[in-house]
Amino acid sequence: MAMGNQEYVQRDLSVVWHPCTQMKDHQWLPTIPIRRGDGVWLEDFVGKRYLDAINPWWVDLFGHRNPHINAALPEQLGTLEQVKLAGFTHQAVIELSEQLMRMTPAGPSFCFYADNGSSAIEIALRMSFHYWLTQGRPEKTRFITLQNSYHGENLAALAVGNLKLYKSTYGPLLTDTIEAPSPDCYYRAPGEYCAEHPNVADVRQTGMITAIELAKHRDTREPLPGQERRGLRVYQHGLRNGALLRPLGNVVYFIPPYVITEQQIQTMTRVGWEGILCAVQD
Fold it and tell me: Which run of H or of E encompasses 253?
């Protein structure tokens, strides 16, 4: 790695503990220091660009440095950067809430704000409990969770999620829930497949989100051994070919920003598919 990146890699690893990351991997697989972003692209400190196929999961739904959003930020900061909503209000929150209310079903509705999805789940749980408490039903303290569901990673969200990968370690800290089966296309009748490759067990897509599930063989759907870390091979192939992909285990997913072009989608899917072909080779 060129020195322009290496300096930041060394400084980062001495002070930063990265989330959702096996830190021991960075003893041999360096972090990628990003200098700037523009639309669907990220650029490191030596000028190499990566097509960002995953960050809209968190913050970049409309692309990096979106000009409309960036123009609005200094205008708002020049007027008011923040004021708590306990006893105060301001024009921006009123206008946003009015817009949201026009998008929701008719009836008594209000906006209650949180700063992230996991906190929003916890607030919803507390509101539900508080409602029943005011109705004289304090015994209603359990929630139903769907199999294979995921809602976030604070303790409340983990409790009502159902992915052992995330919650098993923290089981003693979590509230007891009722588990209910969830319809899952992955377990449909044998012979109904979405792809022809023998290691592609399923392809799922809704809107701009697509996931490709890898397995030992599509007919048996036997999982690939986790210790083989085939998804990591897809990630590495993406980096070598200018695309940022980050599979969840053996599930390769794409969540590109809405500003992506058709040509960029073709590039993203080509690199992803080539990465899959490399990853499933024995």
Answer: strand 251-254
Q: 70-109 pLDDT, tens per residue?
A: 999 999 999 999 999 999 999 999 999 999 999 988 877 8
State mean pLDDT over 130-156.
Answer: 94
Q: Determine how β-strand 243-244 pairs with β-strand 49-52.
A: parallel
Q: Quick one: which of 53, 24, 37 has its CA closest to 257?
A: 53
What pTM did the predictor assign?
0.82
Strand pairing report for 41-44 and 49-52 = antiparallel
Give SS3 for 23. helix
Task: Indicate if the pLDDT at residue 26 is higher than 60.
Answer: yes
Nearest CA-CA partner of 280 in 214, 201, 218: 214
* Residue 5, SS3 per DSSP: helix
Q: What are 146's strand-pairing partners?
A: 180
- Is 226 within 8 Å of 216 (Cβ atoms)? no
Q: Domains along the chain?
A: 32-67+192-282 (3.90.1150.10), 97-101+109-180 (no CATH)
Beta bridge partners of 179: 145
Residue indicated by tokens 């809107």 = 207
Distance of alpha carbon 141 from the chain centroid: 29
Radius of gyration of the chain (CA): 22
Report the candidate in 250, 230, 240, 235 with the shortest Cα–Cα distance to residue 53: 235
**Tokens matching residue 77:** 């900061």
Query: How far is residue 216's CA from residue 204's CA, in Å, rounded to a whole number?
Result: 18
Tens-digit pLDDT profile for residues 207-239: 888 999 999 988 888 888 888 899 999 999 999
In order of 33, 106, 144, the CA distances from 149 in angstroms are: 32, 29, 11
Exposed e or buried b for every residue in 100-117, given b needs 16+ CB within 10 A?
Answer: eeeeeeeeeeeeeeeeee
